[in-house]
Amino acid sequence: SDVGSQKERVVTEEEWLQKWEMGNIGFHKEEGNLLLRKYLDVLLNGRSGLRIFFPLCGKAVEMKWLADMGHSVVGVEISEQAVKEFFSEHNLPYCEEPVPEISGAKVFQSTSGNISLYCCSIYDLSSSIVGKFDGVWDRGALVAVNPRDRQCYASLMINLVEKNSSYLLVTVSYDPNKHKGPPFYVPESEIKSLFG
């Protein structure tokens, strides 16, 4: 198969938390992602004041960049350490509250109100909790999701976006027989079948 031995690979939430604890976060880009700058017009589509979702956000610097442009940013991340590092590295004051609908979950919100980061499993979110989004910046989420969970992930993402939303997705292309992932190889054909 064109996904090699990755099909059965599972990375647990504990393993992701451990990556953050150990500082093994090569997937984090301090300078942000150039593809977002390049395709920003596609994401915004001439609109301002959008609600933009960052799945598996980590401490992505692009969240502050878009919030500074006047957009409302919502992210989800399993690692509380990553969320707190985001706010401290950008010197952003925030408040922390439980999410009543999700056991053990917290939401960290900038005091300016335009950045809200949910600390929980992405699969615990729904549009009734976080609302719907005008745009999605998926720089490292689909390629981090376990291959067996992709359909569930895609269904959630489709449920979270407005009809006229823009979805920017970054994937990686390589021989999946030579790397066990993550990032996982997601063939274009699978992206089309997941998102239509």
TrEMBL record:
It catalyses: S-adenosyl-L-methionine + a thiopurine = S-adenosyl-L-homocysteine + a thiopurine S-methylether. Gene3D superfamilies: Vaccinia Virus protein VP39 (3.40.50.150). S-adenosyl-L-methionine binds at residues 16-27, 56, 77, 121-122, 139. Its EC number is 2.1.1.67. Keywords: Cytoplasm, Methyltransferase, S-adenosyl-L-methionine, Transferase. It is an enzyme of class 2 (transferase). InterPro entries: SAM-dependent_MTases_sf, Thiopurine_S-MeTrfase, TPMT. It is found in: Cytoplasm. Belongs to the class I-like SAM-binding methyltransferase superfamily. TPMT family. This is thiopurine S-methyltransferase. The gene is Tpmt.
